[in-house]
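Feature request disguised as a bug: please show the residue count (126) next to DUF3144 domain-containing protein in the output. Example input:
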Amino acid sequence: MNEPNVNPQAANAPAPLDPAFFTCVNEYLELTNRQSKQQGLKRISMASLYAAARFNAHVYLAHMQPGDVANERQEFLDYMTNLYRRMLNEHLDGLGQERGLDVGESELAAEYAAAASQMPEGTPAR
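Example output, currently without the count:
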């Protein structure tokens, strides 16, 4: 894939996110929270997934060379699927911990353990 922001290796390299990214996320969550009060959580969850899939397909097609679209499709689908699964794991882990809920063993447990062993002494664990 030719787009630098759509790169499977980028998911493995920690990079600080611009605060504007979190502003955008929070604005989107405010919208979904308002909509879910009228439409229900499950319906808005599905609408959000549908909209994300549609938008990401648009971004993929807009940034790929026409001759590469078909050849890169499977790589793009795998990348986006893995990225979503990772984000979902991170949020289940974080929200479970925040709310004091047992959400089961994380698929990222080994990664968390490796990161914790590299943290300076006295750094709070996740």
